[in-house]
Design a protein that fits this description.
Elements: H1 3-15, E1 21-24, H2 36-53, E2 62-64, E3 72-75, E4 96-99, H3 107-115, H4 117-132
Antiparallel strand pairs: 1-4, 2-3, 3-4
């Protein structure tokens, strides 16, 4: 995505401003959608962070379900991209989620996944030890 495309996405959000929730992952999910002024302020602050911290000629860290009529937008933290592709490491959650549906807490789910990652590989390891012994 180019910066101009991000500008267009923000325009779509603000043009159809009713019913948007903005959730900063790690915080408490909002219980109600933002009014126009709150949404405008949130979009402005997110855009400012992206432009100041993602010093590239493109903006490849914002994902939308539909650019013409978005209902879900994930914005990743330019300062915490982690290992996006490749093996290992826990998945990096987005920093902000803009949604027309009320969001749930995301960090707790991520922590649960991290706690049980070994359960997926341990049976494989145990099986390989018993078949080779």
């Amino acid at each position: 995505m180019r910066w101009e495309q991000l500008d267009g996405l923000w325009e779509q959000v603000l043009t159809r401003s009713e019913g948007w929730y903005v959730y900063e992952v790690g915080g408490i999910p909002p219980e109600s959608p933002l009014d126009f002024k709150e949404l405008q302020d949130a979009v402005s602050k997110i855009d400012e962070v992206l432009h100041s911290e993602h010093e590239h000629d493109y903006c490849g860290i914002v994902y939308a379900d539909d650019f013409a009529e978005p209902t879900l937008i994930k914005v990743y933290d330019p300062g915490n991209l982690g290992v996006v592709c490749g093996p290992g490491g826990a998945p990096v959650p987005p920093r902000w989620i803009l949604s027309r549906m009320q969001p749930r807490a995301l960090i707790e789910e991520t922590k649960e996944i991290e706690k049980v990652w070994w359960k997926r590989i341990l049976p494989v390891y145990r099986h390989s030890k018993t078949t080779t012994a």
